[in-house]
Structures
1.
Amino acid sequence: MMDKTVVLGITGGIAAYKGAEICRLLVKSGFKVKVIMTRAAAAFVSPLTFETLSGGPVGLEMFQRPESWEIQHVGWAQEACCILVAPATANIIGKTAHGIADDLLSTTIMATTAPVIFAPAMNVEMFNNPIFQDNIDRLKNLGYSFVEPESGFLACGDQGRGRLAEPQKIVDYLLTVVQGTGDFDGQTFLITAGPTREPLDPVRYLSNYSSGRMGFALAEAALKRGGKVVLVSGPTGLKPPHGVEFVSVKTTLEMREAVKKEFPKADIVIKAAAVADYRPEDISRQKIKKSGGELMIKFLKNPDILKEIGELKKEEQFLVGFAAETEELKENALKKLKNKNLDMIVANDVTSPGAGFEVETNQVKVINRKGEVIEFPLMTKRELSDKILDEIAKLKKST
Ligand code: PMT
């Protein structure tokens, strides 16, 4: 890290004093740290503290005489491998979300192309304020990241969410952003997510409980590790991770078309989508009325997209399927691995608590084409995504 510079922004709140520990930990991790304090932050903690800890001058004012003839906000913005604002007030987050650059810190944030991380700290009601939450959503969609505050006793006397995350946690997160693992640099992923919907009439459809969480988490992990990601998804309430190429589809036939179009460019395909196996033969043009008593619907079998691309797969392409099972998990998953010509299958017992559809967590067995079975305990879908990518990387390396 010796050659990397982190710009540490300190904004005005009582947690500004914890910024000193963050600065110390960053220096200890080997970063050059350049500190910018807002005027309000300097009212809480003396700039001398940060000068001493960072071993350099602290940026305070927009027009203070620069160290050299570079323009400071541009110079630091370009030099930074990452900007960390910790603690981040509602004010700096609101300003960034709306493009306001009226002091050294907000201008530097605006002028950088490096990742920017905010670690918010504030009163619980300010944190819960929908305007503030909107600003966070807006920034997340633009690719800014957040180390969420913790719950507990706040300096203002209130109890709740708003306490700055632990300094070590903030620095650990920054390390993952800065280091990335980059082990999928230059590789193109095609990932599917969510359910498909098969319309019955203009107001009804047949679908399943997939929320898209598993596929979106995989897309985020692949992106963070250097991959280029095309995410083909059925309808979900999720926002695609910033930086993926997003293809929105509804029906199985639409998903099939999108997948087949993207497949030739893909190095690694991961099919986490829960695809409807059947679709109604006829889609009524008008809303089906209940006047006719019982309703019989004839279903046609949908194409198996994964099987089709398994047949087209070139030797250098890597194909991962998911198997959502309610019984005989391993046996059924193994059958799918073979029948669909896969390199790996993620066997998902969707009846197990905390696993499968909708929830934030999952618990799976990964089975590869060598017949190796790797069991993972219950963990978040985001954590599991990295484990699945680790297994892909291992198998690709060994062949
Ligand atoms: O979206 P979440 O709420 O996070 O839930 C995650 C999940 C449970 C949906 C996910 O973990 C999962 O298990 N996805 C696969 C669901 C599924 O359709 O499994 P399957 O066993 O029916 O299909 C096997 C594989 O073939 C899957 O990769 C599926 O995408 C693919 N398939 C299935 C049918 C079909 N017609 N075409 C396909 O490509």
2.
Amino acid sequence: MANISVFPDSESLVAGAADLIIRSAAQAMARHGRFTLALAGGDTPRPVYARLAGADCLKEIDWSRVFIFFGDERCVPPYDPRSNYLMARTVLLDKAPIPRPNIYRIHGEEEPEKAAKDYEGALRHVLGEDALSDGPPSVGLDLVLLGMGDNGHTASLFPGLAAVTETKRWVMAAYVEVASMWRITMTPVVINAARQVVFLVSGAKKAHMVKRVLDGPSEPVVLPARAVRPASGELLWLLDKPAAAELRIDS
Ligand code: 6PG
């Protein structure tokens, strides 16, 4: 069952998301001495990352113990304006004192299948999972941030992709027709093993899809965001009022 938080506007959503990340980091560090965080791409999280890099928030996290991953990446070089890594690096990663080896970039410039395989290997290494073990990690990421497109995709899990219903691989490459590009994405196998999964969704144009994903019956293949159902972790939706406009929220 998802917990839904609705904020009056995009600014309060950004502040609420940054506060949640700071809380999650403190809880993770108290629990096991580090914070493993998968960043979302796209535009919505950008101001959240920028806020975390601001003077008020930067000091709230012990960045030396933070491990950064990406939920997905476009298959472009790291200096390409479409790169999710470039966005995160520009607004946060170059401003926070994170040890560079703790930032795990998806190598979008490499052959997609190899990049996906290598990324899964890096994830397995950090999460202490044997390279050959089947199924989800026994200890998942502490926090996975996700956005959602107005077609119900999340990360680079787009409608109809095999990755949406994958049961073994943690990371997959796929050619995304609607985006006319290759993408590399975490699959629900590793996303659903996380301790916390948080969707950040803003704006009226997402309202109908938010309603369909949260209230509708469609299968994940049609609405991949519905494939995000943490096995034991917490699922939260942080929405601004326009994105929540079609939901009936019991007060
Ligand atoms: C990406 C993201 C993608 C994004 C949604 C929403 O690589 O584009 O991972 O899943 O979160 O498309 O994007 P916006 O936040 O820009 O609306």
